[in-house]
Amino acid sequence: MGKTTKRRRTPVWALCTLILGSLLVVGGLGGAIGLRATLAAATNKVDLEPLLPSAPVEEKKNTSLDGAKNILLVGIDQRPKETNGEPLRSDSIILLHINEDHSSAYMISLPRDSYVYIPAYDNKQHKWNGGKAKINAAFAYGTWGLKGNAALQHGFELLTLTIKDLTGITPDAGAIIDFQGFRDVVNVLGKVCMYVDTKTTSIHLGKDSKGNTAKPFVINPTGTVNHAISGVKPNVYTKGNHCFNPSQALDFVRQRDLLEDHSLDYGRQRHQQQFFKAIINQAIKDGMDSPTKLPALLGAFGKAMTVDNGGIDLADWALAMRGLKPDKIVTIKTNEGQLNSKDVDGVGSVEKLTADSMDLLKAIKSDRIDKFLLGHPKFVATA
Q1: CATH number, domain containing residue 277
Q2: Domain total in the chain
Q3: Longest C-alpha distance within the chain, in Å?
């Protein structure tokens, strides 16, 4: 038998972190950290909670990892322990579709202002009678009056029911991503490097005349800009390659109002998708082989996520997805990334999903997204 050269394969633990908060090393680590040990460490770090609604008996899913899978990822801009009974809106809503042979994945962001039907729901503190509203209100109505994990569970449940009503898709698993927690991930890595595709001005962070960190704008309760604060210069992220520190990274992914391309929420969606992929690549590059960084990374990723594994062990999820590499994640823009807004009395400006976007969601449900994208190339985010 000829000599076999040991080849280091691209780790997919970071992708599984994105999917379920599970970290996986596939071979080539010289025995320093074994696959099973890494899986066990990752699983122990992840906060597992029942987020998905219990399906009726006639709708029970096959709890195996065969076939296409859909994972609902919800980003929030607040640490879960800080929930205080006030409604908590989801900052980003992403469907992660994995094709039948688990060789590629598609990240589809749903605009948080999408005007959709939210089913009636009672979280035992407040009742929502059902009706049309912005999709991020679903998470808020579910969390209203609740704290901690109870708020997250009910918020995620009502959002899941809303997604099902809109798309017909019942997610196989889900995760809540705490953007504040990702500050700790970037802190362990030291930086996250990515390409900024349009000049972005921060409405949250700036410097005063003495060089101290200060807020550059007064912000309305809705999160939009009211007016600039005199003497404070906002942070500006110019177009091009940047390496962000933790505060800059978190600030960048929150911006929507002052993007040079005027893409608003579509721009923020795009930047958040790019940020997730950049985190994966940075972790692979700078954290994978570091015996000092890896344990801290495991802990930081675990703390940044709350996960419902859909009844399947996280290690099994990670092993089943081991052939899926970061460069096989395709990011998708609903409405081709173009604003399709209108004003609704009592609701304000909302985003209406186009007929083509609804066809995209149908293609996800039937695992025919490849065919859809061949006929609709503008839905693919190329940046």
Answers
A1: 3.40.630.190
A2: 1
A3: 75
